Amino acid sequence: MVRRLPALLLVLAACGNPAPLPDLAPGQRPAPDSEEAGLWMQADGAEELIRTSALRIQDPALVDYVQGIVDRLAGPRAKDLRLYILRAPEFNAFAFPNGALVVLSGLILRAENEAQLAFVLSHEITHYQRRHSVLVYLSARSKSGFAAFFQAVANVARVGELGAVVGALAVGGVFRFNREQERDADEGGLDGMARAGYDAREAAKICEVCLHETEAQGEKDRAGFFSSHPATRERIETLTARAATVAAASAPAPASGRLGNVLLPLRLGFLKDEVRRQEPASLQILLDRLFREGVQVGELHFIQGEVYRVRRDADRAIAAYRDAVSHPPAPAESHQMLGILYLKKGDKDNARTSFTRYLEVHPRAEDAEMVKAYLKQLE
Ligand SMILES: [Zn+2]
Questions:
Q1: Which one of 82, 206, 285, 346 has the fewest beta carbons within 10 angstroms of its own beta carbon?
Q2: Do residues 209 and 239 share a domain?
Q3: Which residues, at least 6 apart from 117, have a Cβ–Cβ distance to it below 8 Å?
């Protein structure tokens, strides 16, 4: 269920907004001593911490790939944008006012193709170019909110733990622009992706992906993209209508399929992060889609086992881990989890077989000594 602001609140918010600022020109920086320059300084500080964060993904194939999309979308403005991909199981991306473009792995995992990823990046680049966060800042109601957000980002970067990301994203509600700005970013995002040669019909589709997950998760409040970019039917309809009117670009973007190739070596790690988020209903939606794609299903069955384990459904978890090991290559942990679940059920034979197999396929596992101790108990 998507939360909607009461109409009166929206009217009040609209009244309190200052007039739009002119777009940032390529290479433009705010005037020294301006309030905008102060905001940039705060963003610079947070960016510096992100640059050296343990959560920053440095995989050259993925970074080059996403940077290529940014270059294609941003044209002469691309040199003003600095891309950071962070490992975080959230469907989100942020454009800081100073041009730092932060993309979370949860977004890359959920985009079904390059055009969908391009739409979200183009939407964020539009927020940056049109100085939307500066407008929010100047409206004075959120100055402390911005400070809290950048502080939270700093904590994430220092702590380097996924758990800290969730806290930061909750504060990221500061990036909840008003409806007009969101509409503006959607229009600019869609036009930008079409200009870069992407199929504009994919814009509405990634919002559908978002909406399905939100609905699966139920009433629970969501951090990140779901709160700052509510995927509503209205938004999807508007994007669909606009996509029908934009002209196809003369130079089509590279064929899809590239996203899958760069994502695949990292996908299992990203999916494990999702399991830690403990939101099995929305993860199941993603998993069902990946199963339909049918690539490296062994690791998907393992994650399916993890989802059932989070839901405390041991029988289904065992069945899923068994599916994993019958579809190699599967993560070695599938055997380990089978051993643990069989042990809990008192099925000593199967527990012994699974632990033995785990040590065979992963002899240098960090927990090998513990597993050997289990095996001793089972003798
Ligand atoms: Zn937005």
A1: 346
A2: yes
A3: 66, 69, 107, 108, 111, 206, 259
